[in-house]
């Protein structure tokens, strides 16, 4: 009897251990010859499997417990695993923490704290990373190099340095081992979502793992970030109050970027202590909104990771400038999606139900056009179509926490429909463009938040309207005969003149 019990205990310990080890070998084949990295990978697998098991048990074995309580418990289990795993898991947690309405509120609120969580790599590892990626030591490349990073995030950290010729630079260095870990970590998260979908038929979040699979390799290849910076610098050239730092490509590679150092104030500091800074706050909001409207509606090439730490403001020769940083992740909208999205916004702003229905049909959400419009704007559809309210009031951000709480409660009740819409869009737009729409939802919320906190008198609604109406006019021109094209061009010219006059008036007022 004792001997049988011993075999049972031995099996209970060894079988899961062998399974986890086998899973680690499968997920991380590149670490088979590196014992240290293999052990770290084994621990990451163990934490995710443990969290997933605890979550499944909570959802399946406690039928009387309120669903929100289960969500909070599951979110805490998952967040704990992600925080201990670090690396790309921090990035995934930050994505979850930024998805208003789209995921259950207990998960979003629990993961929101990870949006400000920083990982700092020790300087000795940074030295080694620079040497491995460039073949040179720090002292061979730089006149001086500040050991303490000025900022750190999930993918990389930034140090201040001076080149041999005296130029002051910011050096962005990727955290070690991230690129080697990515395939295994993404496979593990994909396996987690696959198992969850198999067990829970209502679970429809595989697109989150697909989001990582598509975007993380782009963010980890710094050559892509360099190319994005050059392209967006050209796109925003018409706007002298927006600046993109210069990249010194001769010092860069796939894990290190050396760029012009900018002396400015992070937007996060400005928002936290507005009274301490001497900036024109409404103009900051106006500049940011114009820059993103130009990217989205004019070019379909959009900075897709905007947050308060990626934007700085500076005074140069007495003039205020907004500096846009971190160009690792951009969204490319194809022409059809860009036009449909523009038409949707024109329909919302003009309260044109036909435009809204047509656009949502093109975007794959025809049967849920009201809810889709609410998802885009974070407003009730009845408010969007309220003829007694002006454009700004119909779309303004909730003025207090009570209004926000009401919206969250309504979103929770519609959560099943929201996931259905996301999957409808996913099929209609063949995955890639649907994920890009999710990025646009995030950008919309960011812009409204900035505008609300900086107090812009001419809000982003008017800026958006100017762009979408011009884009849609230009599209209509292409489809008409000669006479109609001339009429449309004349109307477009008048519209552009109006837009230019408004911009000049705003620059004088501000």
Automatic annotation (TrEMBL):
The record's section on SUPFAM superfamilies has: Protein kinase-like (PK-like)
Q: Which InterPro entries match?
A: ABC1_dom, ADCK1_dom, Kinase-like_dom_sf, Mito_struct-func_regulator
Q: Where is the ABC1 atypical kinase-like domain?
A: 121-358
Tell me the CDD domains matching this sequence: ADCK1-like (cd13969)
Q: Which GO terms describe its cellular component?
A: mitochondrial inner membrane
Biological processes annotated in GO: lipid homeostasis; mitochondrion organization
Q: Which domain of life, per UniProt? A: Eukaryota
Pfam hit, one: ABC1
Record's family? Answer: Belongs to the protein kinase superfamily. ADCK protein kinase family.
This protein's name = ABC1 atypical kinase-like domain-containing protein
**What organism is recorded for this protein?**
Paramecium tetraurelia
């Amino acid at each position: 009897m004792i001997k049988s019990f011993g075999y049972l205990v031995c099996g209970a310990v060894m079988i899961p251990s062998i399974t986890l080890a086998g899973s680690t070998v499968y997920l991380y084949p590149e670490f088979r010859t590196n014992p240290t990295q293999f052990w770290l990978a084994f621990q990451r697998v163990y934490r995710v499997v443990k969290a997933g098991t605890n979550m499944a048990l909570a959802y399946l074995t406690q039928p009387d417990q309120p669903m929100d309580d289960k969500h909070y418990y599951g979110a805490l289990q998952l967040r704990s695993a992600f925080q201990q795993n670090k690396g790309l898991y921090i990035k995934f947690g930050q994505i979850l923490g930024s998805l208003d309405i789209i995921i259950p509120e207990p998960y979003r609120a629990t993961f929101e704290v990870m949006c400000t969580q920083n990982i700092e790599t020790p300087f000795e590892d940074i030295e080694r990373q620079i040497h491995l990626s460039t073949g040179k030591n720090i002292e061979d490349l730089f006149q001086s190099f500040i050991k303490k990073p000025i900022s750190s995030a999930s993918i990389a950290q930034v140090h201040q340095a001076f080149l041999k010729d005296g130029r002051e630079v910011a050096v962005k260095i990727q955290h070690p081992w991230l690129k080697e870990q990515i395939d295994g970590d993404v496979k593990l998260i994909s396996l987690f979502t696959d198992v969850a979908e198999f067990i829970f038929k209502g679970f429809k979040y595989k697109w989150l793992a697909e989001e990582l699979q598509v975007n993380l390799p782009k963010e980890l290849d710094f050559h892509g970030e360099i190319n994005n910076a050059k392209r967006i610098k050209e796109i925003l050239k018409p706007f002298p109050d927006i600046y993109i730092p210069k990249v010194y490509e001769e010092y860069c590679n796939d894990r290190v970027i050396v760029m012009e150092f900018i002396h400015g104030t992070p937007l996060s500091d400005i928002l936290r202590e507005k009274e301490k800074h001497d900036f024109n706050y409404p103009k900051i909001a106006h500049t940011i909104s114009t820059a993103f409207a130009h990217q989205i509606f004019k070019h379909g090439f959009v900075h897709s990771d905007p947050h308060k730490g990626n934007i700085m403001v500076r005074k140069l020769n007495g003039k205020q400038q907004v500096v846009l940083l971190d160009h690792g992740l951009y969204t490319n909208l194809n022409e059809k999606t860009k036009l449909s999205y523009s038409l949707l916004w024109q329909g919302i702003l003009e309260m044109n139900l036909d435009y809204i229905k047509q656009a949502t049909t093109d975007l794959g959400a025809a049967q849920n056009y009201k809810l889709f419009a609410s998802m885009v704007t974070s407003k009730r559809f009845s408010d969007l179509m309220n003829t007694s309210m002006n454009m700004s009031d119909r779309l303004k951000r909730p003025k207090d926490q009570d209004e926000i709480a009401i919206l969250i409660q309504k979103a929770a009740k519609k959560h099943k429909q929201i996931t259905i819409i996301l999957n409808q869009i996913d099929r209609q737009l063949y995955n890639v463009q649907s994920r890009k729409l999710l990025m646009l939802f995030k950008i919309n919320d960011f812009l409204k938040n900035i505008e609300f906190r900086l107090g812009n008198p001419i809000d982003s609604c008017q800026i958006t309207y100017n762009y979408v109406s011009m884009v849609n006019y230009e599209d209509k021109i292409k489809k008409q005969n000669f006479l109609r094209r001339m009429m449309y061009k004349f109307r477009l010219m008048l519209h552009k003149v109006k837009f230019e006059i408004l911009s000049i008036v705003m620059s004088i007022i501000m």
